[in-house]
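# nightly structure sweep
# worker-07 picked up a monomer target from the shared queue
# config: single-sequence mode, recycle default, output format = structure tokens
# input follows
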Amino acid sequence: MNRKFASLMLGTAAVLGMSCAGVMAGDKTVNIGVLTDMSSLYADIGGQGSVAAAQLAIKDSGLLEKGWTINLVSGDHQNKPDIGSNVVRGWIDEEKVDVITDVPTSSVVLAVNSVAKEKNAVLLVSGAGTTAITNAQCSPNTIQWTYDTFMTAHGTGKALTKEGNKNWFFMTMDNAGGASLQADATTAIEAEGGKVVGSVKHPFINSDFSSFLLQAQASQADIIGLGNAGGDTINAIKQAAEFGITDGGQKLAATLVFISDVHALGLDAAQGLSLITAFYWDQNDATREFAKRFQEIKSDKAMPGMAHAGVYSSLMHYFKALEKLGENPHDGAKVTAAMKEIPIDDPLFGKGEIQPNGRATHPAYLYEVKSPAESKGPWDYYKLVATIPAEEAFLAIDKSTCELIKK
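# output follows
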């Protein structure tokens, strides 16, 4: 089957119009796999929105009109590393998938990172934030495009501690992503003269935060840092309001917030929350145009978050590299090397570069969530506080522990 555009079927390893020509070297067939969370904690962050973003990238690449065949497969990793790695291994071995994108959940992306390197596929990380991807577990096959915990947690910790919030207590999800969020925030807090007076780990995908909030209250810390994301962050903030946390003088600081989280919370609960993101739909004309087209193909009409924008932009950069090569060599390391040679000048993320360790750099933004009175309509949630230049938003390359830098 040789279709110009594959219609989508959601489900683990559901193959969509794969062309047998994809196994041939030097051809112009590309097979893309969107691996994401379709039904759980991060479904709003990635999910069907990431598939929609990939659709838009395929359409906008211009390669279809130039004789390329681009096929798409999507799968649900269920936030489990073994399932995620098995899906990807099957995609590459049986369906000749060239590039995997999105992959929220740090534990899953670390497992998939190993498979992509072993099988010499391309991995474009958009939904996961662990900095291990560009440090100890960096790979010549992987690019981390959208954000990482240094950008969000370190930036949030630095900004709020500078304001005089010196004592922090962390409620952190018990996995690789949570550990990375707390560690990066702590580094910034201590650099600004603050300290972490205590912390507690909670289960990944948790519904009851009562015991953890009681510990946080008892700490009398200025800031309760949330080292979690998605549904865990939403539940923690809602229950903190029920406990009267902010009424008692303590502040909440979410170290990783997506616009879908704010939407789920509502402005009454989320107003005043500070957050750092790499993308906001209402930032400029280009982001608004992308958001409008994204909404048109989303059944729930939700606005895109930064992970969705990252899927789109990383694939667009990937397509630029293929066009530069003049073919698809079906050699992941070769394609990522070509991607690193092309400067980033992206309508959604701005200017930057892909560093040798696979970290894509671009500006980041500190926003504050609007009050209900300040919002002018649906999804009008953020007001800009500060722009963080690309060279400051991410860990300096000379501090990376990635072996590729030494080479």
